[in-house]
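**Fold in tokens:**
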Amino acid sequence: MELSTRLQGGRHVKQAKCKGAGIVNKNRLKLNHNGFGLMEVMISMIVLAIGLLGLAPMITLSIHGNCISRDNTVVSELLRQKVEQFEGTTAMPAMPYQEYEEGLDDIYNRTTYISDNTCDSLVPAGIYHIRVRVNWVDKRNVGRSMSYATYICD
């Protein structure tokens, strides 16, 4: 192969003469270095896979957090319903009052205590102390409970 230089458009262009092939522009012989090679793609896939594996524990933690949040929302509603039931009544039951409800939404147990000044000397006359407690076992078999207490007037 014989190299020669010629002037084209004000630039010097190198040419190679090959036997039987005529003149070949040497710039065409250069490899195209645009794009990604196989090794670069493989390394980026490995880095991406390691990153996604790092996210897996956060996904399970997020699912567990959503379950806890759902349970807390349901329990708050059960507590609110029971307190509003007694706030809306005109006649309170005989004191001391205790009620136990089992199997609410299949997993929740609710206990209600109501006392007045005949049961608790710290409660003024005409005022009732209501305490509601909900117990349940979550999906990880951990016992949980939430309670709410308030005073209502006669």
Remarks:
- The CA atoms of residues 80 and 148 lie 8 Å apart.
- Helices lie at 26-29, 38-87.
- The radius of gyration is 40 Å.
